[in-house]
Amino acid sequence: MNTAGCTARELTLALADADRRERQAAADKAQLIAALCDVYRATDGSANPALPGSEQLISVGADGTPVVSDFLVLEIGPLLGMSEASAGMLICDVLNLRHRHPILWQAVGELKVEVWKARRIANEVARAGLPLDAALAIDEKITPYLDKLPVGPLLRKLSGMIVKADEVLAEQRAKKARRERFVRLHHDIDGVSTMIARMATPDAIALDTALTQAASDAILTGRPEGVDELRSEALGNLALAYLHNPGPAAEAQSAWGILTQRNSSSAEPTHHTAASISRSTRANGDTSGSSNGVDSTNGSASADTCMSLKLDPGASSEGDAPDLPAQLQAPHGRRVPRVAEIVIHIAQETLNDGHGIARVEGVGPMLLDQVREVLGGCSKIRIQPVIDLSEDPGVDTYEIPDRIRRHVNLRNPVEVFPFSSRNSGRCDLDHTSPYRHAQRKPAAKTPSSPQTRASNLGPLSRKVHRAKTLGAWTITQPTPGTFSWTSPMGLTYTVDRTGTTRGHKSPVLNAAAKLTRPTPRKPIPRRRP
Fold first, then answer.
1. β-strand partners of 499
2. Average pLDDT for residues 106-127, to the nearest whole number?
3. Which tens digits make up the pLDDT trace of 497-525?
């Protein structure tokens, strides 16, 4: 779009037109999804409807919505470039809008209300568990405010309507919410994590007050950090204080005391943890009892090192415990007690240079200085051999050994269905070409001969596995780790380590494969007698 030479008024009018076209496109998309819910069938269930795992009609919306094919989400998700979960929420909201909020649905079609705002309202009403008649009543009351109020005041007004619609149900929701309290952790990049908690309101107020008090007291001692940073540190150190002194009878340190301990960078930690290192350098690919292997990007068998770390605060600091490697020594400061097993992938070059990036499973990339802090309380380090992803291990059994499972999960860390975001460790490993139990073993074994091999396996969720088994979706694996999909409606996708691409890619052979490809022989001319 060329905007050179346009006046401010012309640009403003063009922006208004673009917004109208965006609303129109979103409304058209919602109406097409609603129509697709009525007619979509991925397979012909009339042939054998009792077949186990066959396509089912399920209810995905709230009270008053029709049933749809359970495979519909697999068609819409890749088509719109979203995960299965996101596509499921989109289908649910569209059905709730059309059948439980007809006035709001009409306003969306007339471009009076944005689709995202209408979805938010339909979702809030459905989450409250209100029946169809209550949803219809709220639809009449809330729609006139949609083009008059911003989102915040609109949702507050909607919350009041939801409570008034059924006060008994509102009380039940409050009791249920107390039973559904949680604390969840999401690891971000740059060595930090995000914690989300749902707490009882009195507990949340008490925690907020304690963290603020701890940060204020630390600032008075001369700490230069900001309040938010000190509050975050106080929360982490309160957890460490409890782990060092577990039990309700233990006399825990105050948050102020924990924060002020780190005022001096040379201060020794209050609790020490011995670090004992056990190394395992098994040969011949024997990785039994180990953690995951390592992703070798350059195919070298000595490029990376995988460390499985046991964190144990109970180990005594007395005695001659071996020290950690110099590159991984943690700086003075708080020590991490045993809370889990950590798997870290470190390139050999990073260990030699003393700086660089490592990958922590479940967390992501971290600088080596951040890894040193993680390793502060490790009592055991297990160094495992690299897994060369250019190999193609296989066995002549239907069952998949752990070493092949680790190989495939490292090659494809995410489910290989288009635009899926599901971790491959939570998926089944499926034979791309179905395993034939009656097939005889080949007389001359080759690396690609076993049916159960890395180049014939891929991580799939149960629903995708069903759709593929029933023939609704077809899949091939032209090269190891690359999957070509065709949907029931004929749409094609290619999934590999880099993500999802619409359409089928032509397989690209590497240089070694090109050199070893046999040259076709010319036919020998024969003379007729």
1. 496
2. 94
3. 889 999 987 665 554 444 444 455 555 55
Task: Give the pLDDT score at 344.
Answer: 78
Percent of the chain with pLDDT over 90: 40
Residues facing residue 59 across a β-bridge: 67
pTM of the model: 0.69
Tell me if 453 sits within 8 A of 406, measured CB to CB. no
The pLDDT, as a whole number, for residue 445 is: 47
Q: Retrieve residue 269's tokens.
A: 């930690």
Amino acid identity at 399? E
Calculated CA dihedral for residues 198, 201, 203, 206, nearest 10 degrees: 120
Output the pLDDT for position 522.
54
Length of the chain: 529
| Interaxial angle between packed helices 8-39 and 115-127, expressed in degrees from 0 to 180 and rounded to the nearest 10 | 50
Instruction: Please say whether the beta carbons of 408 and 429 come within 8 A.
Output: yes
Q: Contact 31/65 with Cβ under 8 angstroms?
A: no
First to last CA, the chain: 75
H or E element, residue 20: helix 8-39
**Lookup: tokens for 134:** 């209550």
Read off the amino acid at residue 155.
L
CA-only gyration radius of the chain, Å = 30
Residue 196 CA to residue 185 CA, distance in Å, equals 6
Q: Judge whether residue 181 has pLDDT over 50.
A: yes
Give the confidence band of 100 by pLDDT, cuts at 50, 70, 90: very high
Among residues 365, 364, 392, 397, the alpha carbon closest in space to that of 481 is found at 392
Separation of alpha carbons 49 and 265, rounded Å:
70
